[in-house]
Amino acid sequence: MLNLELQTMKDLFGQAILDYQTNNAPEDLITETTISEEDEMSVAYLFRSHAEMPLMEQKALQLARGKVLDVGCGAGSHSLYLQNERNLDVTSIDISANAIQACALRGLKDAKIQDVMTLSNEKYDTILLLMNGAGMCGKLKNIPNFILKLKSLLLPGGQILLDSSDIIYMFDDDEDGGKWIPSDNHYYGEIVFNISYKGEKEKPFDWMFIDYNTLQNAALDNGLQCELILEGEHYDYLAKLSF
User: Fold this and answer.
1) Could you give phi then psi for residue 58, rounded to 5 degrees?
2) pLDDT tens across 24-54, in order?
3) Of 92, 117, 118, 227, which is most buried, counting CB atoms within 10 Å of its CB?
4) pLDDT digit string (tens) for 129-153?
5) Which DSSP symbol is given to 121?
6) Residue 177 has pLDDT above 90, yes or no
7) Domain 3-242 class?
8) What are the C-alpha distances in Å from 122 to residues 69, 127, 140, 152?
9) Residue partners of 22: CB distance under 8 A and separation at least 6
């Protein structure tokens, strides 16, 4: 699912991470989506300490146990905390070669370029999908295969910890008191992301924010329980999926 995208992308997000790590004149990333205007994102945020992380991420790291897989690890901040502060066995994966290079430079012991959908012959006690990691499957139709793949990587008693948001609040009210959602959206949480860095534009890519009820139904349909761990103040939540 992700490999085809990897082959055609410039890896600008990863380049920003690597530039920051190596002090190579890093700049802010410019992001824009189909439902939000152009905005600046500081790369420094991806290098935040545990104390600087949102409560939801801190809670997920507190619940992590055993052998851990950090999917879409980015700059590796979550993995570093689990490795260095909690002495857990952490494998950190990302499709970005630049991000993984930065993770290695930061001291992660097991960081590798890997699409989780092609990972096999490994099992974990905890799978982390933080910073809306479930969004990487892009479209709601991909969620069943995504969940089944993650399920196949769990050890008995294992858990998947993920956070996301219900972005229904971003749509305008209609005349009937509901929300006006464009008819070309199969699911309102599906968006297209655009990223620019140092004057270059990345190939647009699909991303998804999944509301808790939809996630819960998808988990149950594919043989996993879904538990709401924490709700944020702005439609965001932390959930645990388990056998």
Assistant:
1) -60, -40
2) 999 999 999 998 999 999 999 999 999 999 9
3) 92
4) 999 998 999 999 999 999 999 999 9
5) S
6) no
7) alpha beta
8) 10, 12, 26, 9
9) 102, 105
